[in-house]
Amino acid sequence: MTKKLTVGLVGIGKIARDQHLPAIAADPGLELTACASRHAEVQGVRNYPTIEALLAAERDLDAVSLSAPPQVRFAQARAALAAGKHVMLEKPPGASLHEIEVLREMARKAGLTMFASWHSRHAPAVDTAREWLAQRAVRSVDVRWKEDVRKWHPGQKWIWEPGGLGVFDPGINALSIVTRILPHEIVLQTATLFVPSNTHTPIAANLDFVDLNGATVRAEFDWRHGPREQWEIEVQTSDGTLLIEQGGKRLSIAGEVVDVGPEREYPSLYAHWRELIERGEEDVDVRPLRHVADAFLLGARREIEAFVD
Ligand code: NAP
Fold first, then answer.
1. Cross-strand pairs, 6
2. What's the predicted TM-score (pTM) here?
3. Which of 15, 72, 173 maximizes ligand 1 atoms within 8 Å of its Cβ, making it the mutation to test the pocket?
4. What is the mean pLDDT of residues 158-165?
């Protein structure tokens, strides 16, 4: 049997506990040996307060997975690559586009694998939708990605700070699916960002794109929605409507539900990263973040009432 890849996980918060820890534990090719977090510890592994302390002590570690908020991703990834570790970045891969290019260059020069992960691309509906759409003419796309911020980000401050993306933190998941399934590139035309008077980032956004074949792509992201979330992508084509619901768990085509199997986004992400490392490859697609950056460049900003958590 080949040796397991030893992994360190950095930033033990909501997504680390909900998804990363169980996914690593279930992967037969990975072994979690260390974690770094300022306030949290994980049982059964060595724990450090910072990534620097982890890297100084864990010389033999193969790889590091980063699940802290995006504002600290660059410094952490840079430290991990400088120490010779393969790296997996939670989404979004960074707080700016350029920092990702710098990291990608570092990884390439050092012969290390960098994986900028997009968990929603590993949702079960995505590959089937992509294959079906590849053979069709897309006429229009309607993205509705709406949820209650108080339910999904209780008490989180970083989402409202510069680099935290606001409603684009979930919205970028929709964009990661759209950029994966549509046969043509999309280009942002106009955007409106609704920004509470006491936050730096938007609580809602409307985006209008065109694709290179002339189809219109409308996206509505809203954090003031509830109690049930709406994570849907509806694609009108020459052969009827393709509808992705529940963030990619459910797919229907021309009114018929398609069996896409169970949800296993994070196990699939980790299997993909392991395979990339084994093959000596990278996977860094910044297009979802580039569309968000374009929304901040092009978007009309509307100040709205203060957000009360
Ligand atoms: P979180 O719980 O607020 O943060 C994760 C952990 O990162 C925190 O508990 C904190 O642990 C550490 N951290 C926070 N600020 C830090 C700083 N300035 N320096 C160093 N460490 C810091 O956030 P999350 O919801 O897990 O999200 C983290 C990332 O996962 C984001 O990029 C998000 O988009 C992505 N994600 C989240 C979800 C979700 O449902 N929440 C789903 C998919 C992806 P310590 O205080 O112990 O250091």
1. 31
2. 0.97
3. 15
4. 98
